[in-house]
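Let us work through a complete example step by step.
Step 1: write down the sequence.
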Amino acid sequence: MDLISDLLRISRARCVLSGGISGSGAWAARSPAPGRIKILGVVRGSYWFRLDSEPADLRVDAGEVLVVDGRTSFDLGSDLHDSPVHLRETDPVRPIDRDADHVCVTAHIELFEAADDFLRDAIPPVLHLHGRAREATTAAWVLEELFDEFAHERAGRTAASAQLTQLLLVQVLRAWVAAADELPSGWVRAAGDDRLGPALQLMHADVGRDWHISELAAACAMSRSSFAHRFTTTAGVPPLTYLFRWRMRLAERALDDGSSSITELATQLGYRSESAFSVAFKRWSGIAPSRFRQRNPQSDLS
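Step 2: predict the structure and record it as tokens.
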């Protein structure tokens, strides 16, 4: 399994360079809850960051990056006791002062609407890529390149900045997964569990198979009861519930992009009939597959 690639693929995450923040002397800015994942990377200087839902302030130095889930308002600046400038998502992009003491580039993540919670629920409210992390060297280089793309109107700027920002997000996620002492219960934690890895690889490789607990437990060299207990404790749900949810995520993506007819999709996901799949999907999403597909005019297969 490639955990991070799966996260980004199913969420259809697309990184967009938003602009930046720069300042000298004492300054502070306050942002309302963005409503989407935000990336903030320090190119020069340092700043303090405070998330309303977290008790401690974070110091973020040059070459370091924060990723916030966008559900909570936050403050940042060189001095959080200073009177803050109030930022809004609708504000025009502010020009970056290249000679300022503190320079930060910002980006946001656009997600496939139906899978918005998939990535945001998988990560904590704030991720901090520290300068001592293995991934920090690459991140620092990416930040300099992003700053250069933002500062110059060169051909291909949009495409280049999107790829660079995506790489920056991957570095933060890699560092988080590698450094976490104990990830919260969920599929990210399960994917990082070596004992459960063989079962997850089987389910992801053949998602349409009628898997049985005994088969998955045997692949992990565990008893049925021990496997079921470990999986449920680690993933937060029983194995077959995990499989059902993964199938539904794949179904949402396929229905949205029109890559298969509903009948073909039902077969691919292991359902014996289109009606059985439709019942399962409606239980998951609240609407029938055909109605879900109709929300995207580009999807015209039935």
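Step 3: interpret the result. The radius of gyration is 22 Å.
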